[in-house]
Amino acid sequence: MHPERIRMARGGERLEEVMGRGEDEELPEFDFGAFEIEVVDDDNDSNGLSGGGGDRKLVDSEFLNQYLQRGGISKHTMRSLVDSIRLVGAKDFQCSECCSRSVMVEMQLLLMLMNFKSRPCFMDEHEKTFDSAIEQVGCDPKLSKTYGTVDAKGEWVEEPTLLVTRFEYANVFHTVTDWFSAYVASRVTGLPYRPNLVFVDGHCVAPLEETWRALFSSLRYAKNFTGPVCFRHAILAPLGYETALFKGLTEDIDCHGASAHDLWQKPDDRKTARLHEFGEMIRAAFGFPVDKHRTSKPVSGHNVLFVRREDYLAHPRHGGKVQSRLSNEQEVFDALKSWVSDHSECKINLINGLFAHMPMKEQVRAIQDASVIIGAHGAGLTHIVSATPKTVILEIISSEYRRPHFALIAKWKGLEYHSIYLAGSYAKPAEVIKKLSSILKGLDC
Fold it and tell me: Are the beta carbons of 239 and 78 closer than 8 angstroms?
């Protein structure tokens, strides 16, 4: 990969530093040869690969049109990336940088901490002179993390590396489609452990980056490399728009979900555990158990999680306000709170799901501990991908947002799903309470 041949913003900056920056500046434009593949050929001289040659493309337009169709994607960056790949001989294939050195400072994190005395360092896990190296760069060892396992003397990134381009990187739904794409790419290629990750985009740091870092062994932005970098095993992850999670909105994907445990006991080729496994991967990344099976009557009571919509500054082109999908959300929450306090049949804990300002680990914890998840149609409900098998979903859908995103996710995970359709954006609290009461009765509450 030649970062200088990829035209886009550096990426990884603090949001406050890039307010107003256009999206086009953050999406990659690839010059020919932005990516190169070394070709081992006994007759290099005859095919233009030796010396200063190497103008052969990996694929032609016929291949691109057959396997990487643009479809409805206006700027298909993965198609452009593949189109930029040049075949070169060994003499032209040189690396000036590997993914990990004995100690390296992650620049985008330094930008976040530039006013602090402590600075994070990343070191190769095989580094034997850690303390002296830390002193040389003036870093705080308490903030250090392992960053890959590449030999400091090598020119190759030996571990598998996923190359990912994100579009709507600050939106939970679209980010989950990217996570799912990266997960499926890892599964399809049979990786035995979590790969490294390189963002081939120029987006700034966003809160959801916390989960990217938890899911993968290491993370780096393509433009943060100072020179050509060579990967022994690079995997191009499909765009999030090309995953089942997104395509299912317009295409009929006849698929029902189940847990891997259930399918192991009772095989059924009409069901899949793929989305269930994906949710387990997210939970495992934050240290939560993946074999947790909730009993019908939790000792501490049933958690009813109400996923809320909050204002927050998402990206450089965002005004900080989110569009309301439920005009009386607070009224509904207050009514539920009052009803729960008077409910004597069993213990119910109403959880106020103010996710926008919660660490991702706490969001995932709230999802996995919930017996029932309620919310208006909105990106926050995408978290149900991490729900445990017996969780029940109740979606409140306004007339303006009647889309099947979360009904499909529930179906593909094998979760029980209910909905309340509104004439406008106002929900009658009594109707929501009646529906919730019916659901809880099904849980012996």
Answer: yes
Q: Quick check: 121 and 144 in contact, CB under 8 A?
A: yes
DSSP letter at 218 equals E
The dihedrals phi and psi of 198, each to the nearest 5 degrees, come to -125, 125
Using alpha carbons, select from 298, 306, 334, 341 the residue that is nearest to residue 445.
298
Integer Cα distance of 356 and 360 in angstroms: 9
Confidence (pLDDT) at 314: 56
Query: In the Cβ-directed half-sphere of 219, how many Cα atoms lie within 13 Å?
Result: 19
Integer angstrom CA distances of residue 167 from 36, 44, 75: 24, 39, 10
State how far the alpha carbon of 219 is from the alpha carbons of 18, 121, 205, 210, in Å. 21, 13, 12, 10
DSSP state of 286: T
- The C-alpha atoms of residue 425 and residue 375 are separated, in whole angstroms, by 13
What CATH number has the domain spanning 251-441? 3.40.50
Closest among 200, 217, 190 to 164, alpha carbons compared: 200
Q: Give residue-wise pLDDT tens across range 181-230.
A: 999 999 999 998 899 999 999 999 988 999 999 999 999 999 999 889 99
Beta bridge partners of 104: 122
* pLDDT tens digits, one per residue of 39-90: 986 554 444 443 344 579 999 999 999 999 888 788 899 999 999 999 999 8
Q: Residue 237, SS3?
A: coil
Which run of H or of E encompasses 331? helix 329-342
Distance CA 314, CA 319 (A): 8
- Residue spans per domain, the chain: 3-100+148-246, 251-441
Cβ density class 81-93: b for 16+ within 10 Å, e for less: bbbbbbbbbeebb
